[in-house]
């Protein structure tokens, strides 16, 4: 959606949930794939904060995002949804901080690892009922599609496709599928103003269900490790934390197999974002980080960083 803020503001004010009162609409920075806004409504001198997200450029994922967000909100794992349509999502605004920023500011006095907070929310999301007609993760086709990118040459694509076929874990029909968030990065975990480090599993919320899908729990754990740039040694901490919150045995080998796929998914996504962004250097750095972590797994003779070095050096 490439519109002026005035045009977008008029669209937001025209939504049924904003029929009365005065509104202050402010664009929110930080989202890498959606336009998001803070809306402060004043009705009868009472102010209410809302989070508004445009789904206009992401129609293919909008319905899945709304369905999973509704289920999570019902379970008090995500902010309440006030209104939704194929083009807009309006939620309760959580006044507080992201997990990433909170821990950066308070790391020396917190009695708990932030992985535990993330795994608690993730495990509870995995216990939700499965939405009807929700997308099922098909990880190999997903990665193969991502290599079709104008920044990647045909010869590079051939090598990447060879790597993808080698690393893709088997996905049989008997695999236990759960509702995965798909992007449990530290910015997508919100801590409200009521958050207390002495009770760190309370007043925490998951946001941004754009990448939600039905997949194995191991995939969501792997994506969490990858997208937050954690170390391989953190895999054990994540698995232990998850199993403390859910009566499920997690397969570490499968987590590592998915981890390799997640590094490629993220790195290739950043390359695509680099092409379409005015902040390409940021995405180059993030892509390189994911590909370096992939190469460190040493699962294939082919290395991604040397293969894409010229692209990543731009």
What does this structure look like?
The protein has 314 residues and is an alpha+beta fold. It has two domains: 1-93, Phosphorylase Kinase, domain 1; 94-312, Alpha-Beta Complex (Aminoglycoside 3'-phosphotransferase, Chain: A, domain 2). Helix content is 45%, strand content 16%. The strands form three sheets. The chain has a five-stranded antiparallel sheet with strand order 1-2-3-5-4, with helices on both faces. The two termini are 27 Å apart. The model has no long low-confidence stretch (mean pLDDT 90).
Uncertain runs are none
- Got a strand count? 10
Give the overall average pLDDT: 90
Query: What is the global morphology?
Result: globular
Strand sequence of the main sheet, in spatial order? Answer: 1-2-3-5-4
Largest sheet: 5 strands, antiparallel
- CATH class (first level) name of the largest domain: Alpha Beta
Helix content: 40-55%
Return the string of H and E elements.
HEEEHEEEHHHHEEEEHHHHHH
Separation of the first and last Cα atoms: 27 Å
* Structural class by secondary-structure content: alpha+beta
Tell me the Rg in angstroms.
Answer: 20 Å
Q: CATH superfamily of the largest domain, please?
A: Aminoglycoside phosphotransferase (APH), C-terminal lobe
% residues in beta strands = 15-25%
CATH topology of the largest domain: Aminoglycoside 3'-phosphotransferase, Chain: A, domain 2
The total of helices stands at: 12
CATH architect. name of the largest domain: Alpha-Beta Complex
Write down the domain tally. 2
């Amino acid at each position: 959606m490439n519109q002026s803020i005035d045009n977008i503001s008029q669209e937001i004010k025209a939504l049924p949930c904003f029929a009365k009162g005065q509104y202050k609409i402010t664009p929110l920075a930080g989202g890498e794939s959606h336009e998001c806004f803070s809306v402060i409504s004043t009705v009868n001198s009472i102010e209410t904060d809302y989070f508004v997200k445009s789904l206009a450029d992401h129609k293919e994922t909008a319905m899945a995002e709304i369905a999973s967000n509704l289920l999570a909100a019902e379970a008090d794992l995500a902010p309440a949804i006030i209104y939704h349509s194929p083009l807009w999502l309006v939620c309760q605004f959580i006044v507080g901080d992201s997990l990433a920023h909170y821990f950066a500011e308070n790391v020396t006095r917190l009695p708990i690892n932030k992985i535990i907070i993330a795994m608690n929310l993730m495990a509870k999301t995995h216990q939700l009922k499965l939405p009807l007609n929700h997308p099922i993760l098909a990880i190999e086709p997903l990665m193969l599609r991502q290599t079709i990118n104008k920044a990647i040459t045909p010869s590079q694509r051939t090598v990447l496709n060879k790597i993808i076929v080698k690393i893709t874990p088997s996905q049989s029909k008997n695999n236990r599928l759960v509702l995965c968030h798909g992007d449990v990065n530290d910015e997508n975990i919100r801590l409200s103003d009521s958050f207390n480090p002495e009770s760190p599993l309370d007043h925490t919320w998951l946001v941004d269900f754009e990448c939600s899908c039905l997949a194995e729990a191991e995939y969501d754990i792997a994506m969490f490790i990858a997208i937050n740039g954690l170390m391989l040694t953190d895999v054990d901490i994540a698995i232990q934390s998850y199993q403390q919150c859910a009566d499920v045995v997690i397969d570490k080998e499968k987590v590592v197999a998915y981890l390799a796929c997640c590094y490629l998914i993220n790195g290739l996504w950043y390359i695509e974002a680099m092409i379409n962004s005015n902040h390409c250097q940021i995405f180059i750095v993030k892509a390189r980080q994911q590909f370096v972590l992939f190469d460190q797994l040493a699962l294939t003779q082919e290395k991604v960083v040397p293969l894409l070095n010229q692209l990543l050096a731009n």
